[in-house]
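Input chain follows. Return structure tokens only.
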Amino acid sequence: MLSKSLKVLRGSKTQNEVADALGISRARYSHYENDHVEPDIQLLIKMANYFNTTIDDLLGNTAGLYLGVPPTV
């Protein structure tokens, strides 16, 4: 799911532009978009911040499942 999210969020930007902003090589970023490898937690945080989203959204947790604990109102 991460790879699909990255492709959608990147939009019209190039892989190079996103990779530069994240401080990684274009080839490494491409591996994430093509689901060859998974980023570590530090890079997931950078990605979420860059795309102005959450790690949950990046990973496809859109059902609102929070480790079995419902959010408080």
